[in-house]
Amino acid sequence: MTRILFVCHGNICRSTMAQFVMEELVRRAGRAGEFKIDSAATSAEELGNPPHRGTVRKLREEGFPMGSHRARRLRAEEYADWDHIVYMDAENARGIARILRGDPDGKVSRLLDWTSRPGDVADPWYTGDFDATYRDVLAGCQALLAAL
Predict the structure, then answer these.
(1) 141 included as an active-site residue
(2) Sign of the alpha-carbon dihedral angle for 102, 100, 92, 147
(3) Confidence band, pLDDT 50/70/90 cuts, at residue 67
(4) Domain hosting residue 32, numbered range
(5) Which position among 38, 89, 120, 123 bears the catalytic label?
(6) Is 101 a known active-site residue?
(7) Is the pLDDT of residue 93 over 90?
(8) 8, 38, 120, 136: which one is catalytic?
(9) How many domains does one find in the chain?
(10) What is the CATH number of the domain that holds 88?
(11) Active site (annotated) includes residue 8
């Protein structure tokens, strides 16, 4: 079982989008039983909130089902529970480092670093561009799945 945790600032836009995209990609590949996938935040701002309506709209538009999810915060004690902790941008990397206080097993990576065009996934909370975020998340998840 490969265990993947996607992480962003609030766990209502990018990380939940990545969680549901990855869950569907592994299902379509006939590999759903091989993975455990979840998402979390580095902040406490959105705790308990459902995915952002822009994320919900975009995933529905693209034919990706959404499971039940409420924003939650990454906890240091869950480091051992995950094989990959995949973040979206440099701010998330700083938040993860603050929470985990290290990555001794090299589990932490940036989503787009799995692709041929490394970089940050822009936060649609600020940009309002859920289409661009979706394109980046899909590319990152496809590359991650191909690598695994």
Answers:
(1) no
(2) positive
(3) confident
(4) 2-147
(5) 123
(6) no
(7) yes
(8) 8
(9) 1
(10) 3.40.50.2300
(11) yes
